[in-house]
């Protein structure tokens, strides 16, 4: 079984998330998703939804075989446990492919790092960003 890992915050699901996970699932036979802990989401506003709620919703998506909450301190602990063949970064994720490849090599993990493609909006009002969904809620309800 070729194991693939995808990861992200996944706060308030939208079709961009689904596209990423479908893309990642197509790169192997079993898709594991690591959901970022709120305390580790420091590069943008923290998620609105609780850690466990985000894991439950991601687990329910069709391309996903297993979703789990990430490690609090060391992002490579779940990777060592899953032992994937491929790690798929999101099209806009800030992680550096080379830095991850080097860290994997240092830990003796034999795994390829790839990037998923982006999904563009297919109709006028489609929102493919959690941040933009929150902005629209604030605009319309506050
Ligand atoms: C290979 C890899 C493993 C990760 N593992 C964890 C983890 O164990 N715990 C965690 O809180 N975040 C982990 N992260 C970070 C987040 O999943 C996520 O990449 C980061 O917060 C960016 O999220 P965004 O794409 O939703 O903005 C990992 C990221 C990568 C690239
Ligand atoms: N439109 C999209 N097309 C493809 N992948 C996407 C799209 N939107 C999000 N993703 C991917 O889903 C994963 C999780 O994304 P994240 O939880 O940061 O959502 P987001 O909507 O991009 O959030 P924000 O709007 O707050 O930046 C990331 O790997 C990201 O690249």
Automatic annotation (TrEMBL):
Q: State any single GO MF term.
A: FMN adenylyltransferase activity
Question: What cofactor is needed?
Answer: a divalent metal cation
Q: Name one GO biological process term.
A: FMN metabolic process
Domain Cytidyltransferase-like, by residue range, is 6-135
**Which residues are noted in the entry as ATP-binding?**
9-10, 14-17, 92
Q: Which NCBIfam families match?
A: cyt_tran_rel
Protein family according to the UniProt entry:
Belongs to the archaeal FAD synthase family.
**Protein's job:** Catalyzes the transfer of the AMP portion of ATP to flavin mononucleotide (FMN) to produce flavin adenine dinucleotide (FAD) coenzyme.
Name listed for the protein in its UniProt record: FAD synthase
